[in-house]
Amino acid sequence: MSKQPAKKKSTADRTTRPRGMRDITGEEFYTYQGFFEKAAEVALYYGFQPIETPMVEKEDVFTSSIGESTDIVEKEMYALKSKGGESLVLRPEGTAGIVRAYIEHGMHTLPQPVMLYYHGPFFRHEKPQRGRWRQFYQFGLETLGTEKSIADAVVIRVIVTILQEMGIKNLCVRINSIGDKECRVAYIKALTHYYKKHLGEVCANCRQRIKTNPLRLLDCNDPNCQKLKEEAPEMVSYLSESSKKHFKEVLEHLDTADTPYMIDHTLVRGLDYYTRTVFEVVAHEEECDDTPDDLPDEATDDETPNEETTTPENEDNDETPPQERPDNQEETPKQLALAGGGRYNDLAKNLGSKRDIPSIGAAIGVDRIVTLPDFVPHHPRIIKKPKIYFIQIGFEAKLKSLEVIELLRKAKIPVLQSLSKDKLSIQLAMAEKKAIPYTLILGQKEVIDGTIIVRDMDSHSQDTVKIEELIEYLKKK
Ligand code: HAM
Asked: What is the pTM of this model?
């Protein structure tokens, strides 16, 4: 059978961007640039250093850290094969690549902890909707190589400070501790036991989650399941002594640093690598209650006391159950997480590290911040609004143009120009439209004399200046 010719794509197919992705130009580009510069400045003041990892990583980096059965790994990764047959993935998040880099470069030999910041595009094949892009931008922080609670508090504080610097008001850190592997086994047993007793009252999704991913029962937004959720056993009651102590200390640090937070016993997050502290930052209309709930000293639910956490005969296996989403699925505007993060003490070993690298980090969703009504853009350093418009008349002057512009560039004087235009009137009109105070006019006569005309656009007065004296003349202006 002869091969059918490939159907010719319409022009519209070739001239539209992929779904869920954007072109960022003009003012919007400067907004993002300004965000990254300001956020990096705050991070640097707190001792974080820059890192940039590749935009693609080997697939295993993500599957063995984020978790095989999470939504990200199961459905959202942009996977590709290199020409050599290697399975690569467009990074859906930054943490796994950074831990990979820490291990690969033996960063454990550096003074610990290693504090890093990063920003750039990330890729998830999600359903595009408000605040959810397939290519989106994060600014992230990672502190690697310490289990100290102060490190958790510093990451949270810096994230909040960056958001405040961007003008975002009514911030609230929703925080929880999901303990470590051992305490979670006991908790999941208790949670499953509780839900099984109420099987008839829960939605179909929850019935499924009891089997596949019990922690996500806490993410359910179905109105019929809310009461049950409110009365469900709380993770905090199943925390081991050391996890509980850690959580208490983090909260104390947040109190001292005046960071608005609210304990949210239902916050579980959606990446499998988290241990102990998990948090999300939201902009709230209600008050953010910064009074810590009492952390009980003992388990309050009768199903599974804390002591059982380490017994191997626990009926559930000791694997962290999959959580399917990075942040809540059925979001209302108020719930949209502006940033999220947590501690990931086991991630490095999952990636093949021989040693534990206890770490904490978080990332801000930049696309969500820059569209908030409170957002105040920062001007990036790279744009200096030019005060000079360069005009040339005639071919000889065009030839000389680049030499003059380079002279100005070396003196750090930015100019606007329209070298492709020929007529003086058009170029003057463009300078006026942009409200540029001075124009430089180079005609054939000036080229021969080695001079240039400097015109004050307000007073219409003008001087003829020798080109070698131009910089000094302009600097005096
Ligand atoms: P995440 O919660 O998946 O965590 O993402 C962090 C933030 O990125 C979210 O709170 C949200 O603002 C933004 N975000 C996520 N997905 C999208 C999307 N499709 N479109 C627009 N914005 C989005 C992480 O990525 C972890 N790596 C954070 C972390 C760092 N944990 C420890 N260290």
From this structure: 0.86
In short, whether 362's Cβ falls inside 6 Å of ligand 1 is yes
State the pLDDT at residue 4.
64
Give distance in angstroms: CA of 136 to centre of ligand 1: 9
Which carries the bigger pLDDT value, residue 313 or residue 465? 465
Q: How far is the CA of 326 from the centre of ligand 1 (A)?
A: 7
Q: What whole-number percentage of the chain has pLDDT above 70?
A: 88
Q: What is the pLDDT of residue 205?
A: 85
Closest ligand 1 atom to Cα of 339: 10
Rounded to the nearest angstrom, the distance between the alpha carbon of 166 and the centre of ligand 1 is 18
User: Is 320 a pocket residue for ligand 1 (Cβ < 6 Å)?
Assistant: no
pLDDT of residue 46: 96
What is the C-alpha to C-alpha distance for residues 427 and 421, in angstroms, rounded to an integer? 7
Cβ(367) – ligand 1 distance below 6 Å = yes
| Closest C-alpha residue for ligand 1 atom 25 | 93
Ligand 1 centroid–CA 55 distance in Å is 16
- Band of residue 326 on the pLDDT scale cut at 50, 70, 90: very low
Q: Is the CB of 272 under 6 A from ligand 1?
A: no
Q: Which among 76, 93, 278 is the best mutation to test ligand 1's pocket, defined by most ligand atoms within 8 Å of the CB?
A: 93
Chain segment 401-443, per-residue pLDDT in tens: 999 999 999 999 999 999 999 999 999 999 999 999 999 999 9
Nearest atom, ligand 1, residue 124 CA:
19
In short, whether 338's Cβ falls inside 6 Å of ligand 1 is: yes
